[in-house]
Amino acid sequence: MSFEIYPFTDFDISVIKSILERAPNERELRFIGSTLKPLLDRRYFIDFYPNIPFKKALKGQIIDKNIGLYWDISAIDETQIIELLLRNEILNRKIFCIGIHTQKKDSISKIKKILDKWNNLINIQNVSIVTNQNFSNSNENGFLFSLASKENMAISNNSISSDSSIYIIKNKSTSKTKNIKDIFRLIQKIKMNSNYFILPTQSKYPLVFSILTEIMDNNIGIDFHLKNKSEINDILFQLSKFAVIIFGNKGIYKKIKMFKPAQFSVSKLGNLNTQDNLSLYIRDSQKLSLPKNIFSFLWQTQNTILSKEEKKNKINDKIDIKKEKFYNKKLITVIKELNRNIKISFNHKNNSIEKLKLKQSINFKDEYNDRTWILGFSEYDQFALIDPSSAGKIAISNAVRNLRCKGLKPYGILIQNYFSADSKEIRDSVTLIQSQEIAIRHFNLQSIYKNINFSSSQISQNIYMVGNLSEKSIFPASGFKQADQFISILGSHRGELTGSVFQKCFPKYVDSSTVQIDLNMESKLGEVLELGIKNHLIQTATNVGRGGLSAALISNLIFGSSEMGARINLSRKLKSEELLFGETHGLVVISLQEEDIMEFERICMNIGVPCTTIGRVTNDGKFRFNELIDISTKELKDIYD
């Protein structure tokens, strides 16, 4: 018996042999290797918690049924997007948000075209689409994710019975459009019968792999019954597009055949058993039998392998920056660079499109569960290339802080990692994952989705954060609204320029140095923000991130009227560029009424968070920072618009 469709190396075989509980014979070994090939490339990095079941570990998805929030993810590819829609249709989920991370300007129109095409078949609410575009990093891969809920939480796909048979249904049509429409309609008919469990195939995984993920978490096994050896490759290891796997009881075959038999081919693959084994029969002759748990070894954390390749540090030559009276030109350069990182929100129902401004998050209304979800972003995904050991903590802390500044408690996190298959990058990749896990545990976040893709030439991370908005939520204002309010900073401004926008714009002027992140201080900062917002003391709260303190202050001006301004006087033992553009992690700009300052400072003192008043809101339409910057609010707005 040979399995040639998924070749694997001698090293793959040695890894499998070293971990399996018993030594398999050559025939069994080849079947195991072929079955697990989709994960062999990920074997170094699987680092899920040990109590997460097999299926959830595979999909990287944890579903909170009490909250009713569901994630799904896809490549920006029509086939995989349609498969995403199929999965949600089968599971009775209605999509209300689609997010796209891409460099391509036409991504929204591409997704909109797909949704319009299948709008009469799929379960979608008033879908909002947000695209996160970064044209400065053209090598980064794109992906799409969705947020969905159930119209009726009691409705769910039926559980698999141990006496079920397994069938695969495929459309005979060669027309892609007709194939998809027929499969959608077939799913809707099948769902009316409570005796069926429906499983969609995935074009990037072989059929046997999709089936395996469903039975691993149940006390059942499977007996595959095939007519000849060629069906091992032709059926079990095929990559099927727009097909459906059905688990059902006796008599299901005739019922399935009643669904337009001329359009669909129905093939029986085998039966489930109660032995927790995976067996393969050719014409009723058993060819192999394996304990089911033999396939779960790749999800064990101890299989992580570290590379001994030493990290090479890049050091920039230091050049003293030329003293200038005003930094207006440099500020404009930094703002224009920030403006290249574009986020666009599109409402599918009314065809409205909006370019999001700096540090703006997205609200998504879940109509069926009467909830509003807030989607926030990390501004520091790029730090993975600078310092993997702190990159995860920095990016996640930044995303948490962004939601905290909006008066929200972060609920869950989505992480998409892109790694290189080059063995020299393994150490940094594993270090990045460990950094992310430290932050996830520290902030007690729900890991809604975690995934790794190995198609990149360099490591990178994409962090998205979700918060839940309740009726009792209190929002600080978005931008300065009233003159004479006091402006303060929470935290200690260290003026760090490593990995900053300023360094990208003026690389010769910045030394690379270690960047600090204090997770304990981040928690204290979150506590201060929560109390200050809850007690109506904080009027506005803005996370200091990309662009530094100046950019955070400016973001409050572009949300207000052109008459609003700010006058800042801040003295620190920092260089001018560090003071203006330093991106200190763990720093927040707030505004307060004069009568609330003492009460708020008392809260900060009790919790242990530094609070410094640095200026006031004005109504002269000017942004002034010490004697370094003097620019009109209107000019700043024009740059963003």
Could you please describe the fold and organization of this structure?
By secondary structure, the chain is an alpha+beta fold. It has three domains: 54-151 and 361-469, 60s Ribosomal Protein L30, Chain: A, CATH 3.30.1330.10; 157-292, PurM-like C-terminal domain (Phosphoribosyl-aminoimidazole Synthetase, Chain A, domain 2, Alpha-Beta Complex), CATH 3.90.650; 486-640, Phosphoribosyl-aminoimidazole Synthetase, Chain A, domain 2 (Alpha-Beta Complex). It is 30% helix and 26% strand. It is built from 18 helices and 25 strands. Strands 6-8-5-9-7-10-11 form a seven-stranded mixed beta sheet, with helices on both faces. A seven-stranded mixed beta sheet has the order 20-22-19-23-21-24-25, sandwiched between helices. Strands 1-4-2-3-12-13 form a six-stranded mixed beta sheet, with helices on one face. Strand 2 (93-102), helix 5 and strand 3 (124-134) form a beta-alpha-beta unit. The model is unreliable at 1-8, 43-50, 135-139 and 298-324 (pLDDT under 50).
Features:
single chain; 641 residues; alpha+beta; 60s Ribosomal Protein L30, Chain: A; Phosphoribosyl-aminoimidazole Synthetase, Chain A, domain 2; 3 domains; 7-stranded mixed beta sheet; 18 helices; 25 strands; elongated; disordered N terminus
